[in-house]
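Predict the 3D structure for this chain.
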Amino acid sequence: MVYLLLLLSFLIHIITFIIIRQWKVKQNEWMDLERKVKKEVKSLEDTLSLYLVEIKEENQTFVEELKKIPYDQHDVPETIDENGHEIRKRNKNPNKEDHSLHHNKEEYYPPAPSVTDEMVEPSKQARILHLFQEGYQVSDIAKKLDTGKTEIELILKFHKKNDK
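Done. Predicted structure below.
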């Protein structure tokens, strides 16, 4: 009888160890999945931060270009009523003419765009994708554009995901 109980105990222990091992394998799978998700989130955050930096740079250049445009204060209305119509103050001296009223009689023609305004410089991402499609390796693209390899890899990785 003792042998039978020992055998039964031995079988229960083996089954328990197998179950514990299976739980451990499942837990490791979940941990690996969690690491992969964190890695993907980090990759997306890096890509989005790169886009954010690029957008900030474009906005700064746009603001600088806007600051270069001359500003004529004679074209700005002094006040605007509820209907959006411009109200100008009357001259206190009636002998002086108000040249601002005569200014509106001329028809406005916007300046013609120059040839330099039509040139568009491709973004860093477009240049990277173009060079990659031409068959350049990541290290060659990084050297040519003076950019880090990881940045190139992130942009290519993000672009591959968008194509799917």
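Strands lie at 79-80, 86-87.
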